[in-house]
């Protein structure tokens, strides 16, 4: 097994703590996305894994072997950089076989393998071209083929789609995922794009301010966010501040019936999140608290429609998939919104731990 | 009236012609700038070229003329065909020899320094650049004087070698004889004046700041992620240098060497102080012909033209090689 373990690894630059003590397991053959906003420490973590940044503490264990002190050139980790970092003085094929040539592989053997890799990334026949003659998407494929040439134990990608336009990015996400599944290689992708992470990853590590906020499958991260940050960063959510009152939530004059987790005692200040697809409009039969509302704005996005509401507990967005409801909505019309208990995510108010809230 | 009326309405030749038949002010200024630049660039060159065909009048100055005697004297000596000497070709050879070695030495030593400098913080880079730029304000005379003191037999490095016991140690291990064979020692102590070593070292020192300044832009533009990419593919530090960094900046490296080489062809003071009389360069010979005892401007001009053509040939050759390998 060639799984990778980060054991309490951390990194400081002077007095700045870039990555807090982190323990993560990367199972063999799994694709993990390190997801977070700019400056959250995800690239620093990836660079520590690659050996390009020395950890301030902790250990990296690959297949049971401590590789913390191993320099980058001895780790056999293929890496695709944000800028692709292709060598402009070499042709496409020369770039791909670079790792093979410097390791002393027979030239004919290396070139044959290079051609196969170019075929794998759908660039057969491009071997003799200069790097400058390629498009962004083609360059990315060359970078992937080049990183795979040495048959790395771990495949690292640092924001690999950020230099591509939106359409190409979507296509490449699927292509890269299919390629990774075909090769069964342990892969770690750094991204700030939650859609990219959701598309590609088996497991997502959400990071913020150098800390790991949540680790889980894309579905769990979206539907069971561990905290308000994750709920906010992954997808969209309506947020309200409330106080726990006898197992329900008090928002001003409105009492929302729900099952508040036992950890929140009476009077705890909490932050409540509900995804836009959670509430429903004019559904008297649905279980949940009904709140009067007024439609302030309609936003048609094609596959979905956003209905902006002004309610007694604050502004709210409700999302309907196209064709999900027959009802015609009009700006200015009155309605009522139902908040199903199961759609509400309750978190301790920022900087207020559940026990402190009492 | 009719005629006058026709004259008023019919299109005239002057009306059909472009309105700006006279050059505009901008065109005039641009032409003037070009004329001044061409005049300043070409006039000295053309004058030297014309003078090189003149001839010296014994006991007086020189007169205009058209004779190839000066060129013949440079290549095969004044007494050709009775007697052939390659004295001036030998001077040309030393010009090339010193300039090539000093240019290579300057670039080779400036390259790692500049590479590591570009890896420093912006603030540190700015401090280094200011320091290096300020060193350019030192004149050749000042620098040569400093090195003259540093390498002098009585007060410089040789004295330090002797006092510190390094000379004796060199004698004990047998390396002193090797230094003597290289002309870097007399029977008693090491000596650096006069020697090819001191000449080349001082010339390299003269152009070292230029080498740093020429190499700084391409090295600071070098994409450091390519270096890291090579590392992740198994390349150690030397392999990265050999396969990524050097090929990426090959053209600026060659260009810097060529520029410094051309600059060094004309170095005068360092050669007169540090080179042995028999190993002086053509630049020194040009100066002596024009300003020295002989006052033979045509012969000096012929040597200057040959030096100029040699520089041009080397520049062209360098460019051709760069293009071929690009």
UniProtKB/TrEMBL annotation, chain A:
Keywords: ATP-binding, Nucleotide-binding, Transport. Gene3D superfamilies: 2.40.50.100, P-loop containing nucleotide triphosphate hydrolases (3.40.50.300). Residues 4-234 form the ABC transporter domain. InterPro entries: AAA+_ATPase, ABC_SmlMolc_Importer, ABC_transporter-like_ATP-bd, ABC_transporter-like_CS, Mo/tungstate-bd_C_term_dom, P-loop_NTPase, Transp-assoc_OB_typ2. It comes from the Bacteria. GO terms for molecular function: ABC-type transporter activity; ATP binding; ATP hydrolysis activity. One of its GO terms (cellular component) is ATP-binding cassette (ABC) transporter complex. Belongs to the ABC transporter superfamily. PANTHER family: SPERMIDINE/PUTRESCINE IMPORT ATP-BINDING PROTEIN POTA (PTHR42781), SPERMIDINE_PUTRESCINE IMPORT ATP-BINDING PROTEIN POTA (PTHR42781:SF4). This is ABC transporter ATP-binding protein.
UniProtKB/TrEMBL annotation, chain B:
Its main location: membrane. The keyword S-adenosyl-L-methionine does not apply. Residues 92-318 form the ABC transmembrane type-1 domain. InterPro entries: MetI-like (IPR000515), MetI-like_sf (IPR035906). One of its GO terms (biological process) is transmembrane transport. Gene3D superfamilies: MetI-like. Keywords: Cell membrane, Membrane, Transmembrane, Transmembrane helix, Transport. PROSITE patterns: ABC_TM1 (PS50928). It is a multi-pass membrane protein. GO terms for cellular component: plasma membrane. The keyword Cell membrane applies. It is found in: Cell membrane. Pfam families: BPD_transp_1 (PF00528). The chain crosses the membrane at residues 32-54, 96-116, 128-150, 196-216, 251-275, 295-317. PANTHER family: INNER MEMBRANE ABC TRANSPORTER PERMEASE PROTEIN YDCU-RELATED (PTHR42929:SF1), INNER MEMBRANE ABC TRANSPORTER PERMEASE PROTEIN YDCU-RELATED-RELATED (PTHR42929). Belongs to the binding-protein-dependent transport system permease family. CysTW subfamily. This is ABC transporter permease subunit. It comes from Rhodalgimonas zhirmunskyi.
């Amino acid at each position: 097994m060639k799984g990778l373990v980060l054991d309490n690894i951390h990194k400081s630059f002077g007095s700045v703590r870039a990555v807090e003590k982190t323990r993560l397991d990367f199972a063999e053959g799994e694709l993990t996305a390190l997801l977070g906003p700019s400056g959250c420490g995800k690239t620093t973590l990836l660079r520590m894994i690659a050996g390009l940044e020395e950890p301030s503490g902790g250990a990296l264990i690959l297949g049971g072997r401590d590789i913390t002190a191993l320099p980058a050139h001895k780790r056999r980790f293929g890496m695709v950089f944000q800028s692709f970092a292709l060598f402009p003085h070499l042709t496409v094929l020369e770039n791909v076989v670079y790792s093979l040539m410097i390791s002393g592989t027979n030239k004919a053997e290396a070139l044959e393998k290079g051609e196969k890799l170019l075929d794998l990334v759908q660039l057969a026949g491009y071997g003799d071209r200069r790097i400058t003659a390629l498009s962004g998407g083609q360059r990315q494929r060359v970078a992937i083929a080049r990183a795979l040439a040495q048959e790395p134990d771990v495949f690292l990608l640092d924001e690999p789609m950020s230099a591509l336009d939106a359409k190409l990015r979507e296509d490449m996400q699927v292509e890269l995922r299919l390629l990774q599944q075909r090769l069964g290689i342990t892969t770690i992708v750094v991204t700030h794009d939650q859609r990219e992470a959701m598309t590609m990853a088996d497991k997502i590590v959400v990071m913020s301010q150098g800390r790991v906020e949540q680790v889980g499958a894309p579905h769990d991260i979206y539907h069971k966010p561990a905290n308000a940050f994750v709920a906010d960063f992954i997808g969209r959510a309506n947020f309200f501040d409330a106080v726990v009152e006898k197992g329900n939530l008090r928002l001003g004059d409105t009492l929302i019936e729900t099952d508040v987790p036992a950890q929140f005692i009476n009077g705890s200040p909490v932050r409540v999140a509900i995804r836009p697809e959670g509430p429903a409009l004019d559904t008297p039969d649905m279980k949940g608290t009904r709140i009067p509302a007024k439609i302030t704005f309609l936003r048609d996005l094609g596959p979905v429609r956003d209905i902006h509401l002004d309610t007694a507990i604050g502004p709210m967005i409700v999302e309907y998939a196209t064709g999900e409801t027959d009802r015609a909505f009009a700006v200015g019309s009155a309605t009522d919104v139902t908040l199903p208990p199961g759609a509400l995510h309750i978190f301790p108010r920022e900087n207020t731990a559940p026990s402190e809230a009492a | 009236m009719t005629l006058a009326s026709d004259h008023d309405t019919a299109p005239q030749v002057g009306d059909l012609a472009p309105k700006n038949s006279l050059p505009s002010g901008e065109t005039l200024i641009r032409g003037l700038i070009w004329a001044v630049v061409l005049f300043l660039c070409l006039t000295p060159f053309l004058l030297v070229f014309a003078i090189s065909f003149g001839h010296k009048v014994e006991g007086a100055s020189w007169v205009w003329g058209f004779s190839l005697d000066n060129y013949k004297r440079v290549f095969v000596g004044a007494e050709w065909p009775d007697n052939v000497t390659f004295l001036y070709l030998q001077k040309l050879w030393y010009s090339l020899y010193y300039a090539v070695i000093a240019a290579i030495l300057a670039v080779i030593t400036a390259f790692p320094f500049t590479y590591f400098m570009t890896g420093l913080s912006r603030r540190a880079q700015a401090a280094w650049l200011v320091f290096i730029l300020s060193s350019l304000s030192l004149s050749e005379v000042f620098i040569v004087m400093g090195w003259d003191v540093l390498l002098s037999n009585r007060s410089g490095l040789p004295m330090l070698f002797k006092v510190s016991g390094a000379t004796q140690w060199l004698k004990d291990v047998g390396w002193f004889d090797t230094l003597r064979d290289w002309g870097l020692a007399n029977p008693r102590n090491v000596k650096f004046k006069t020697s090819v070593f001191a000449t080349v070292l001082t010339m390299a020192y003269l152009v070292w700041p230029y080498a740093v300044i020429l190499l700084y832009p391409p090295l600071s533009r070098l994409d450091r992620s390519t270096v890291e990419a090579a590392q992740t593919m198994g390349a150690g530090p030397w392999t990265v240098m050999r396969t990524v960094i050097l090929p990426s900046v090959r053209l600026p490296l060659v260009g810097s060497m060529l520029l410094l080489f051309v600059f060094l062809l004309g170095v005068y003071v360092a050669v007169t102080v540090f080179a042995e009389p028999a190993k002086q360069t053509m630049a020194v010979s040009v100066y002596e012909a024009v300003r020295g005892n002989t006052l033979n401007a045509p012969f000096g001009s012929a040597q200057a033209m040959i030096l100029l053509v040699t520089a041009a040939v080397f520049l062209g050759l360098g460019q051709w090689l760069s293009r071929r390998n690009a």
